[in-house]
């Protein structure tokens, strides 16, 4: 590599290199980027948004940032498997590599036509993301990517290849290298360099190499077959066996350390028929429908699940209406509270964790912030309850789609071996929204009503993000994908495993039509070497890239459409129940809110499902009376909302409980009991169960207790009495449930996976700024002609290293005034009020009052600059002025 070529990715400041002549090979990544148009730069910055955080000052800084280790790793993690295999092949190819060499490494000597056809797309992806640069006959992988992917003893390459002959013989004595030539049947040379070249030529010559291996003992060939696909290293003793000695004497195995040998890369490639990978995967695994249901069945099933989801969230927050469980000191629910919630919802604990996290992500519950912190519904919950059912569902579904909090990891361990609790810290997984969106997009690509195998979806995700999913089939992305299928079914986005019509609308796919299979849209990848030839075959998929971020207006529009499609499928709330003689009431469907709220107080839910069964008990009727209802109110309410007459047993139950309700009165003494019937008080004192209340008679109709009123109230109820609490004035206290609410809270913000994808406006502004800075940093300047030797030297130094020009205030003013008279163009250094330095190319128009008004070529507008912020000035070369 020449010095000019090698300097392309060195970190540092601004570049002083001149643009390459038209038609010449780019000498650096910066030059390669400089030759791109704005659409190509936009594609780069959209695929790698970390490159414009903050916006680079020029293209040289952009190239430097694109070659940093963190940025390259992030870019490699987002490559699909074939694009990554292409980069891995470039890492083991000679540098620079012609396109034909790369093609042979991937397609092999046989020239796999599918690989040949898919390769232009992979190279285009690597070029677009600035991981590969150069013309087709001089392809270069950026240095950091080559260091990460090239094979080494500490980091074996996924290709399974070892070092080249030249690398493996480094440090070997010249005499030993000559011996290898002689044994291999090659003439000796005068130096070690030419000897290594001769041995390399032998191993890369298919005909001569085949003849050499034909003469090998079968046992030696068996040794090579064990090393050919990697790992390429093996162990030998101090006195190798004959089969190993034959290979060592001819350089087919080379020593790397005492007792260790390696199969040279050239030998392995010959044995592999030229292929860098044992299995090349140019096409993504297909996702085929495993079953197809009628769309109407899918939509109705999903709608039923959506209604159940709404009912479950309501039941959860109703259970926590008076204040939910306490928050742990470290945050989150305790295991015991999660179990209680699971029992209340009648679901397994992992499912309960999902509903709790969903309500939290939607902003419906939060900690109340009190000293003894508890979880409770937020004011947004009350607003949510007033919305139509379809709108309530879209609120939950959109919150789930964008949430990074992942309920599936609840119960697992964090890096410090602490248990992860529901609603606690450490549940954010930044990959979750992307995986959810991708899984649902793949389902949307199937025919209507089609469901896919979870294993097929996981295999597809592994192909699309090769580095992140290559470790095992149980990695985080795979688990999130499987959780997505379960959670989407629970939410009613899918039905029977297939995406519903309202689910398609929520994803932005038109209902009734399959969505594009790739997140990037229909196949439109460039093809051919150097992106010159189009690919016309539909089975080639475009590069998998992050989808364009939807604006809030687009998201709201998609959610509204989904709600409109779902609304007709949800059951209409009913205003009646069916009362039965066994003290039960059957609700044949969802009830309207006032009716449901009263029944929740008046009766206990016995079973849930398509129809809800309520049971009336003395305790439930007393609960309604405690809430301020009278017996006549309850009778009238049931008569008005029942399609059947009020059964006599139920009427008797209400009247009996009401007759005894309030017969005993309890107030605060510590506490007292009073009753007009002294026989009842005698019965209480005689009951052994009252001993814990420590009652004593104050008057024939009054008992005093040392227990507090609430304890006394519960104790007498446990003994079978129906006491009522009274106020200090002697009035019966009406105890209505107190709805506990948190202060206004916002839903938790998702934790992004790196910088967000820039929108079109930001991209346009960033590219203009980068182009302007690049113009200022690459425009040729005249040598300084000032009388001051010191300032002349400083200016010359600035021209050499790309730093800001430095001149005295007098020189700056004189040069500016001269440029106004001659109409010249100047290169200046400028420091703004925030202290940020930049280079600019200006044409001064007026200099007065300590300011210069000039046409700024870098900003393409007229601006005024304070002269005291100009660090220096230099004239441009005549051909640039």
UniProtKB/TrEMBL annotation:
<keyword id="KW-0067">ATP-binding</keyword>
<feature type="domain" description="Helicase XPB/Ssl2 N-terminal">
    <location>
        <begin position="577"/>
        <end position="699"/>
    </location>
</feature>
<feature type="region of interest" description="Disordered">
    <location>
        <begin position="775"/>
        <end position="803"/>
    </location>
</feature>
<feature type="region of interest" description="Disordered">
    <location>
        <begin position="1"/>
        <end position="35"/>
    </location>
</feature>
<feature type="compositionally biased region" description="Low complexity">
    <location>
        <begin position="784"/>
        <end position="798"/>
    </location>
</feature>
<feature type="compositionally biased region" description="Pro residues">
    <location>
        <begin position="745"/>
        <end position="758"/>
    </location>
</feature>
<feature type="compositionally biased region" description="Low complexity">
    <location>
        <begin position="508"/>
        <end position="526"/>
    </location>
</feature>
<keyword id="KW-0547">Nucleotide-binding</keyword>
<feature type="region of interest" description="Disordered">
    <location>
        <begin position="739"/>
        <end position="761"/>
    </location>
</feature>
<protein>
    <submittedName>
        <fullName>Helicase C-terminal domain-containing protein</fullName>
    </submittedName>
</protein>
<dbReference type="InterPro" id="IPR032830">
    <property type="entry name" value="XPB/Ssl2_N"/>
</dbReference>
<dbReference type="Pfam" id="PF13625">
    <property type="entry name" value="Helicase_C_3"/>
</dbReference>
<feature type="region of interest" description="Disordered">
    <location>
        <begin position="508"/>
        <end position="554"/>
    </location>
</feature>
<dbReference type="InterPro" id="IPR026881">
    <property type="entry name" value="WYL_dom"/>
</dbReference>
<feature type="domain" description="WYL">
    <location>
        <begin position="811"/>
        <end position="873"/>
    </location>
</feature>
<dbReference type="Pfam" id="PF13280">
    <property type="entry name" value="WYL"/>
</dbReference>
<dbReference type="GO" id="GO:0004386">
    <property type="term" value="F:helicase activity"/>
</dbReference>
<keyword id="KW-0347">Helicase</keyword>
<keyword id="KW-0378">Hydrolase</keyword>
């Amino acid at each position: 590599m020449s010095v000019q070529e090698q300097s392309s990715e060195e970190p540092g400041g601004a570049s002083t290199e001149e643009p390459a002549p038209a038609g010449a090979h780019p000498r650096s990544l910066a030059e390669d980027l400089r030759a791109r148009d704005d659409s190509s730069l936009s594609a780069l910055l959209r695929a790698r948004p970390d490159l414009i955080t903050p916006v680079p000052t020029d293209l040289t800084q952009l190239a430097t940032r694109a070659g940093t280790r963190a940025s390259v790793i992030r870019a490699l993690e987002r490559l699909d498997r074939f694009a990554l295999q292409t980069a891995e092949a470039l890492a083991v190819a000679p540098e620079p590599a012609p396109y034909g060499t790369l093609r042979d490494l991937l397609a092999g000597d046989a020239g796999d036509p599918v690989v040949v056809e898919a390769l232009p797309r992979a190279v285009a992806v690597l070029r677009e993301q600035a991981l590969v640069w150069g013309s087709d006959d001089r392809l270069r992988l950026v240095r950091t990517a080559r260091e990460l992917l090239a094979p080494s003893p500490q980091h074996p390459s996924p290709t399974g290849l070892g070092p080249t002959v030249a690398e493996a013989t480094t440090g070997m004595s010249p005499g030993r290298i000559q011996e290898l030539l002689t044994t291999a049947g090659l003439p000796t040379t005068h130096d070690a360099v030419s000897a290594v070249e001769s041995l390399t030529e032998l191993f890369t010559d298919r005909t001569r190499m085949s003849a050499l291996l034909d003469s090998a003992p079968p046992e030696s060939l068996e040794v090579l077959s064990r090393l050919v696909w990697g790992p390429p290293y093996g162990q030998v003793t101090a006195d190798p066996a004959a089969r190993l000695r034959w290979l060592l004497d001819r350089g087919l195995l080379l020593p790397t350390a005492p007792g260790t040998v390696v199969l040279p890369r050239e030998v392995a490639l010959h044995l592999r028929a030229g292929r860098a990978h044992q299995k090349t995967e140019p096409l993504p695994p297909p996702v085929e429908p495993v079953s197809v249901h009628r769309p109407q069945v899918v939509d109705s099933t999903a709608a039923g699940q959506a209604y159940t989801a709404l009912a479950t969230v309501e039941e959860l927050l109703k259970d926590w209406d008076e204040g939910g469980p306490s928050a742990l000191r470290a945050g989150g629910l305790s295991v015991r509270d999660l179990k209680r919630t699971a029992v209340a919802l009648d679901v397994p604990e992992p499912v309960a964790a999902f509903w709790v996290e969903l309500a939290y992500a939607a902003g419906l519950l939060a900690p109340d912030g009190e000293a003894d912190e508890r979880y409770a519904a937020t004011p947004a919950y009350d607003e949510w309850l007033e919305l139509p059912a379809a709108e309530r569902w879209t609120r939950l579904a959109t919150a789930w789609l964008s949430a990074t909090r992942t309920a599936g990891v609840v119960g697992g361990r964090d890096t410090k071996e602490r248990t992860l609790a529901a609603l606690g810290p450490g549940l954010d997984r930044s990959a979750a929204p992307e995986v959810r969106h991708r899984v649902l997009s793949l389902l949307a690509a199937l025919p209507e009503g089609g469901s896919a195998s979870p294993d097929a979806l996981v295999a597809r995700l592994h192909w699309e993000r090769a580095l992140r999913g290559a470790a095992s089939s149980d990695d985080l992305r795979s688990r999130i994908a499987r959780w997505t299928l379960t959670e989407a079914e629970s939410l009613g986005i899918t039905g029977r495993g297939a995406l519903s019509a309202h689910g398609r609308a929520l994803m932005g796919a038109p209902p009734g039509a399959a969505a594009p299979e790739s997140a990037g849209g229909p196949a439109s990848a460039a093809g051919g070497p150097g992106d010159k030839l189009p690919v016309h075959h539909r089975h080639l998929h475009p590069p998998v890239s992050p989808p364009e971020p939807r604006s809030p207006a687009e998201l709201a529009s998609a959610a509204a459409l989904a709600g409109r499609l779902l609304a007709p499928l949800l059951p209409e709330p009913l205003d009646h129940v069916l009362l039965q003689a066994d003290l039960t009431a059957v609700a044949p469907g969802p009830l309207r809110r006032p009716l449901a709220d009263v029944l929740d107080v008046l009766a206990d839910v016995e079973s849930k499902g398509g129809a809800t069964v309520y049971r009336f008990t003395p305790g439930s009727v007393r609960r309604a009376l405690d809430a301020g209802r009278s017996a006549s109110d309850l009778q009238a309410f049931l008569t008005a909302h029942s399609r059947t007459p009020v059964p006599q047993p139920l009427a008797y139950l209400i009247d009996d409980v009401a007759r005894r309700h309030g017969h005993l009165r309890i107030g605060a003494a510590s506490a007292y009991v009073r009753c007009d019937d002294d026989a009842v008080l005698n019965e209480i004192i005689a009951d052994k169960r009252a001993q814990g209340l420590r009652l004593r008679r104050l008057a024939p109709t009054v008992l005093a207790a040392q227990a507090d009123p609430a304890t006394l109230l519960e104790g007498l109820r446990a003994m079978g009495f129906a006491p009522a609490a009274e106020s200090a004035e002697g009035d019966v206290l009406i105890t209505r449930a107190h709805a506990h609410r948190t202060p206004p809270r916002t839903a938790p913000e998702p934790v992004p996976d790196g910088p967000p994808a820039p929108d079109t406006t930001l991209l346009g502004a960033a590219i203009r700024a980068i182009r302007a800075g690049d113009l200022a940093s690459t425009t040729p300047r005249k040598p300084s002609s000032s009388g001051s030797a010191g300032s002349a030297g400083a200016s010359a130094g600035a021209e050499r290293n790309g730093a800001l020009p430095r001149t005295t205030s007098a020189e700056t003013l004189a040069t500016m005034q001269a440029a106004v008279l001659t109409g010249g163009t100047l290169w200046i250094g400028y420091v703004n009020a925030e202290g940020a330095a930049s280079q600019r190319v200006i044409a001064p128009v007026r200099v007065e009052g300590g300011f210069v008004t000039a046409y700024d070529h870098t900003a393409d507008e007229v601006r005024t600059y304070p002269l005291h912020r100009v660090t220096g000035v230099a004239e441009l070369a005549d051909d640039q002025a």
